């Protein structure tokens, strides 16, 4: 059923409303990534505040860390919330609408990626749809960057206050002192950092609820073409004759029969048409999240011995080192990777970008593993680590978000995107917990080097699944994509 109101969206010129939609829809991802990627920074402080047991490494340096079981639980609980949120809100997005679900998810501060992905896909035209969805997803990178910058700012302020009251140890006296006292207000610092993440979402809520429902949901799911045309009219000028033609077509007996004869989600017809796409999208998202979240949430493990010096000077020092490195990688690698995706995705396609990203991530991780074994060249180590994040974002971390938003029928789009994302977060749980245990030194674990090699193998598998099983969506309308047999 080719509705002219939807055709008008596919051929529309890029305009101010599209960029406004990117910001509004992307704020869920921004808030989510801010909250999630504060965790590795906050855990460094929590380890010093609540777990003051002194550990000793092979160099007899004293350091502090949240016990592995506690850290695993923290990561697992946060990511499990993402799994549940994506499944539940993805399904609700197809039942009650993208606008309502996204508003509720902002209020609840649960993962809002399901609603915002399908929102941008259904507002954009087919020529620049990939760039717009990638623009929404790039808000994740800015959330990561802001979490680091806010952490640096807050901890620097608290550290300056501690210095004034002589609660830190001068560097020249450090060898003779066991541990600096923990300032009582440090327990407030990490709470402030987390609470600040609520501000962007609360500022966006009003504008999101003023945003109209997507025309595709209104026309194809609710069967209200007149309202869909009115909503599109808020974005662009649409002749009344076009609206009337669509209303007349919807009201014909043949069209009504076609609309009532739609196959359900749990059916052989759905599996025949979309089963392979759903499986491929889910597997690719699963594989990239194993690597992406492991490397992000445990940067302090990866950097240990190369760039981060375990310190006993004060409660803020270790966490500030990690925050500065995380900000550096976000500025030099993570955010640029998103921008390159936005620029190139509608020219070279989703599948090529995803395959290239997986390939170079594998190469970087294998090389990182070799360098980690030797313990030399920390400058090369950080460059390769940055390359890994650049090619994850100019690659599968962005495209696994984009492709499920384009492949499926409007009435299943949020559900399928939610399933793919939930499977991805299961991969994040497995990868994060697996990395935490596997990266321990033998005989209790594999060690960091072998763990990096395993993740390189995961990326190689992602390249294989992408190349042989993932369908290209570039250049076609959403309705053309969903009707491919």
UniProtKB/TrEMBL annotation:
GO terms for cellular component: membrane. PANTHER family: SOLUTE CARRIER FAMILY 22 MEMBER. It is found in: Membrane. Belongs to the major facilitator superfamily. Phosphate:H(+) symporter (TC 2.A.1.9) family. Pfam families: Sugar_tr (PF00083). It comes from the Eukaryota. InterPro entries: MFS_dom, MFS_sugar_transport-like, MFS_trans_sf. Signal peptide: none annotated. The chain crosses the membrane at residues 20-42, 63-89, 101-121, 142-162, 278-302, 322-343, 355-374, 380-403, 415-438, 450-469. Keywords: Membrane, Transmembrane, Transmembrane helix. One of its GO terms (molecular function) is transmembrane transporter activity. This is Major facilitator superfamily (MFS) profile domain-containing protein. It is a multi-pass membrane protein. Residues 21-474 form the Major facilitator superfamily (MFS) profile domain. It catalyses: phosphate(in) + H(+)(in) = phosphate(out) + H(+)(out).
């Amino acid at each position: 059923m080719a509705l002219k109101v939807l055709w008008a969206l596919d051929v529309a010129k890029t305009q101010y409303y599209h960029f406004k939609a990117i910001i509004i829809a992307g704020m869920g991802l921004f808030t989510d990534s801010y909250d999630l990627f504060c965790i590795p920074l906050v855990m460094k402080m929590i380890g010093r505040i609540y777990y003051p047991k002194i550990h000793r490494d092979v160099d007899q340096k004293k350091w502090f860390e949240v016990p592995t079981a506690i850290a695993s639980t923290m990561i697992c609980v946060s990511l499990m919330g993402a799994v549940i949120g994506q499944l539940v809100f993805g399904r609700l997005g197809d039942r009650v609408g993208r606008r309502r679900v996204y508003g509720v998810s902002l209020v609840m501060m649960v993962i809002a990626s399901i609603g915002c992905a399908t929102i941008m896909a259904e507002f954009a035209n087919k020529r620049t749809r990939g760039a717009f969805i990638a623009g929404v997803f790039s808000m994740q990178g800015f959330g990561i960057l802001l979490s680091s910058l806010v952490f640096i700012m807050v901890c620097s302020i608290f550290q300056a206050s501690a210095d004034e009251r002589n609660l830190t140890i001068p560097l020249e006296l450090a060898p003779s002192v066991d541990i600096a006292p923990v300032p009582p207000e440090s327990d407030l610092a990490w709470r402030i950092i987390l609470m600040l993440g609520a501000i962007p979402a609360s500022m966006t809520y009003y504008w999101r609820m003023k945003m109209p429902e997507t025309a595709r949901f209104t026309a194809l799911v609710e069967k209200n073409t007149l309202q869909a045309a009115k909503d599109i009219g808020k974005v662009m000028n649409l002749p009344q004759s076009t609206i009337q033609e669509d209303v007349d077509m919807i009201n014909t007996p043949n069209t009504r029969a076609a609309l009532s004869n739609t196959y359900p989600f749990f059916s052989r017809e759905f599996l025949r048409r979309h089963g392979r796409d759903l499986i491929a999208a889910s597997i690719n998202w699963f594989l990239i999240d194993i690597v992406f979240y492991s490397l992000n949430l445990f940067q302090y493990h990866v950097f240990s011995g190369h760039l981060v010096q375990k310190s006993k000077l004060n409660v803020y020092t270790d966490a500030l080192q990690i925050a500065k490195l995380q900000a550096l990688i976000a500025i030099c690698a993570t955010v640029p990777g998103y921008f390159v995706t936005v620029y190139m995705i509608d020219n070279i396609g989703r599948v090529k970008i995803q395959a290239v990203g997986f390939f170079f991530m594998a190469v970087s991780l294998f090389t990182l593993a070799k360098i980690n074994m030797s313990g030399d060249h920390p400058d090369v180590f950080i460059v390769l680590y940055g390359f890994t994040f650049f090619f994850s974002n100019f690659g599968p971390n962005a495209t696994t978000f984009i492709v499920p938003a384009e492949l499926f029928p409007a009435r299943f789009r949020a559900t399928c995107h939610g399933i793919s994302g939930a499977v991805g977060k299961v991969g994040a749980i497995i990868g994060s917990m697996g990395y935490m245990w596997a990266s321990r030194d033998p005989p209790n674990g594999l060690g960091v080097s072998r763990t990096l090699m395993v993740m390189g193998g995961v990326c190689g598998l992602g390249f294989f699944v992408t190349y042989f099983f993932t369908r290209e969506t570039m250049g076609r309308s959403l309705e053309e994509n969903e009707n491919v047999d």
